[in-house]
Fold this protein.
Amino acid sequence: MYKTAMLGCGGRARAHANAYQFVKNGKLAAICDMNEEQLNSFGDHFNISSRYTDLDEMLAQEKPDVLHIVTAPVLRGTDQRIRYPLMKQASDHGVPAAIVEKPIAVDSEDWRDIAGLAEETKTKFVVNTQLNFHPKNLELKRDVAEGRIGDIKFIDASARSTPVDQAPHVLQLVSSYIDNSRPVRVLGQVSGGQGLNSAQPSPMHAAAQALYENGLHVSLAFGTGMGTLASESGGNNRHKRVFVVGTKGFVHWRFSSWERSTQEGGYESGPINYGEQDTIAQGNLTNAVFDWLDDENRVHPTHLKQSLAEFNLLLGIYYSGVTCQIVDLPFDPPDGLIDILREKL
């Protein structure tokens, strides 16, 4: 039975904790938050008595096998990036594994710091892009892997939210349908500077054509200007989708619905209860961390280096947009990329 701990006790952390009803071989045993009211409310709700306001103290006292880092990437009320420092704390304490909330970074500087950490740490970091583990996505991915849609010819994917907010989910979904093949080139466009001074600085919109190392072309679009699908309603976060086209059919996963066309089954479609699927997916993601701890060969699909490659693609879209050039990937993004975007947009 693995012992786990939670850093951050806000709303997103409750989704992590609720998923423990589907978690095998693990127990959430300790929590940490600087906000004592939030800490105690969370602890009372989930019946967790080991509560801390200092991360170093919790890690030293509890020695968890897995740490959930469920914090925003930027310290509230400041422009201080905190992903890397918190991950470095976990690494320095020798935490065997950690689940980090997305996005893994917000700009070139913290991406570079975390990429450096990935080369030296012994902690198994994974990023919490849980859509990979939605039951319906797993089913559609099996269809693709078993050849039911033939050879993949093209992927179209989009999200109706700012790129840094939902692109990590969508880019990971694209990777998951093509065995985590890495992007090698991108031509991108960006627009809208209204969100560049927010806690998660980002252009409002981005579109790109990306080439992957397996030769596949992928069309990507992000932003609040994206039109909604007829089957989706509600807030911007409800528009996430990946459409995989093959020589013999297609699969199409969306926030609240799905469709598939194969030679064997013809055209099929149906609704998705996202809330139910997401709780199961969060449990599946956590279980997959335990599997990796059990067996080095069972590498987690959202492991840190893979997620960093996907975020490097997003940074490549930004840089292509402001330089009007095709960007070869992976690339070393310039410092001050967010400032460059502010100047251009």
Notes: The chain is about 35% helix and 25% strand.
